[in-house]
């Protein structure tokens, strides 16, 4: 233990005087006695000596008629507050004998008070002081503030369950100690919160800062904040239950039986000072580094050992945290403080590392903003080859060290690099190199501790390429090696590795799945590489390989489709049709080339299946072709019809002839080559419903074909039906009756033979006449409505043209208040107002 304070006996009470309370500020000590006396001492070092010189300045025997229970001084306001005979009194320190200024009559019955003194330095350098006071009167708390030489109440009294034995202000919170418990009261909301019970004893409350305090509990001290939460897990433990506790940063000083014990807030014992045969009860702090301890008859002074001497000693004892705290309160310049603190922290961090407290060490390096390369150098194993590194990672300490380094480097990557002082002014190249070192080191750590974090790190693409490639190969991290190649655009290396590993059953990259996934993400700029490596995938599994070109990904959808189609036709024709169907049906491709290609592929496979006597497959595919020819509007019938044979696939040819508006030829195929009048009628109905070109005369062509079938000698040459067709007038008349409203009269009469009785076409003629009359009536009605509308428009025009207005030079514009000149354009509103044309938008 080092000595933080020197103790010096100061004085003894005058005869028949018993000290009851003590307070101090600067070099002044004020002592109140049980007899009501006030003694004021001045304490200064003797010239050329470390000893203190004590001088009694005042001895006021008439300060109070009763025992002085408590004293508190505010030197900036030159006032002294006392509690005597259960009443709070205010005295001025401007006059020698501290005469009474005011008495708080309402405080009668008080047993305790506490001050909250806030000192604020303004922009002009002037220090203003605000003083608040809490007075305990039985089970009430009275709250006052100082204004214009008197205390005024600033809110109503607060009721508490018992009489407080200890009170302390912490910002806007009152910390109260009762005989059996502690309580917090938030003043603004009057919110009361119980903390914890204690044994029946005198409570001790010691303020540490505006937000923290220490509470005594037998031989322990609990450190808490104003939220009622402990600020550290370990309490401060004393040798015995203290009589009183004071805080002199960074130390807690407690008065125990015949000793004064000095500890840090993290429960480190610093010093034990013996006070032989004393019964010290009081302790107060006058300024940083000086405290006074008093009994009923004596007073001692604790004055701090010079901080420079303390810092040297605690550094020898490797108490680095304490050294940092002492540095922060030294009277050195801010620059010197920062420099010394940096040095201490650096030594502290390295010492923690040597003590194998790796996590704490990394935390200190983060606080110091240390260059990460210097920290990495603490791990020489990470600079060796991977196989050596793997051999050395066998003990638990090494794993803990690596985990701490991982956490440190992760934090550095997120918050430090690019913002640190050691990177200021450095080039982008040096910053990149440092990030490369950090990420490569992280990779080495992950290889030895946590494989799952390797892939996310590699995707950031900042590791050293060659070194990372070597390590991943050594550890056989094939998935991660693929990511490395991918992020560095080394796609050929990645695909070669995928092909190689696809043949290794125990490899995580076995099979075609990973190659397919990789190729899907490359995009059209790598089309040649995609086609090169898709070949072996399609050879092994055509259906799975097709996913390279049909997956629902933007990169796949934007591949050049004609080039892909040519490739599939050469390498794996079996998947050409599924590819074209996907492009048309899913991606809604409307290009003529793709639609023509699908028709052609359908035709070729149908012909092939029929030749191989696979009739079921051929018919299923033919149904697809017929549906596609009917529904698609994007193939070129002029082009694709030339690929179809004349003696087969006649229904498909008929559909394409219909698209070319060659309806007679199409109907001829249905009736003369296929001998299927029903399909011919269905064809005509379809053309009429879709209103295709030539739809108005479609039924006329059907009737002509029934009444006067053409002679087609080439049918016999093609091996089709050679039986001559016979006229079927009755069928033609039936069509005439069924579609009388859809067949033009002139066309029907031109094809009907003269032998047909008039009575047989009476219904058709009647319906046609009724339709013409109806259309004529509609035309007449529309003509009448248009004429009536014309008359209304003319009437409105005449009414508008009959209006006039007089615009003289004396008339003013109501907007701009100017006259209308001869050249002025104007606008007239419905209510009759006339304004300049340019003013119409300004009028409200």
From TrEMBL:
<dbReference type="GO" id="GO:0012505">
    <property type="term" value="C:endomembrane system"/>
</dbReference>
<feature type="coiled-coil region">
    <location>
        <begin position="599"/>
        <end position="631"/>
    </location>
</feature>
<dbReference type="GO" id="GO:0006914">
    <property type="term" value="P:autophagy"/>
</dbReference>
<feature type="domain" description="CNH">
    <location>
        <begin position="16"/>
        <end position="288"/>
    </location>
</feature>
<keyword id="KW-0472">Membrane</keyword>
<dbReference type="Pfam" id="PF10366">
    <property type="entry name" value="Vps39_1"/>
</dbReference>
<dbReference type="GO" id="GO:0016020">
    <property type="term" value="C:membrane"/>
</dbReference>
<dbReference type="GO" id="GO:0005737">
    <property type="term" value="C:cytoplasm"/>
</dbReference>
<dbReference type="InterPro" id="IPR000547">
    <property type="entry name" value="Clathrin_H-chain/VPS_repeat"/>
</dbReference>
<keyword id="KW-0175">Coiled coil</keyword>
<dbReference type="InterPro" id="IPR019452">
    <property type="entry name" value="VPS39/TGF_beta_rcpt-assoc_1"/>
</dbReference>
<comment type="similarity">
    <text>Belongs to the VAM6/VPS39 family.</text>
</comment>
<feature type="repeat" description="CHCR">
    <location>
        <begin position="552"/>
        <end position="711"/>
    </location>
</feature>
<dbReference type="Pfam" id="PF10367">
    <property type="entry name" value="zf-Vps39_C"/>
</dbReference>
<dbReference type="Pfam" id="PF00780">
    <property type="entry name" value="CNH"/>
</dbReference>
<dbReference type="InterPro" id="IPR019453">
    <property type="entry name" value="VPS39/TGFA1_Znf"/>
</dbReference>
<dbReference type="GO" id="GO:0006886">
    <property type="term" value="P:intracellular protein transport"/>
</dbReference>
<dbReference type="GO" id="GO:0034058">
    <property type="term" value="P:endosomal vesicle fusion"/>
</dbReference>
<protein>
    <recommendedName>
        <fullName>CNH domain-containing protein</fullName>
    </recommendedName>
</protein>
<dbReference type="InterPro" id="IPR001180">
    <property type="entry name" value="CNH_dom"/>
</dbReference>
<dbReference type="InterPro" id="IPR032914">
    <property type="entry name" value="Vam6/VPS39/TRAP1"/>
</dbReference>
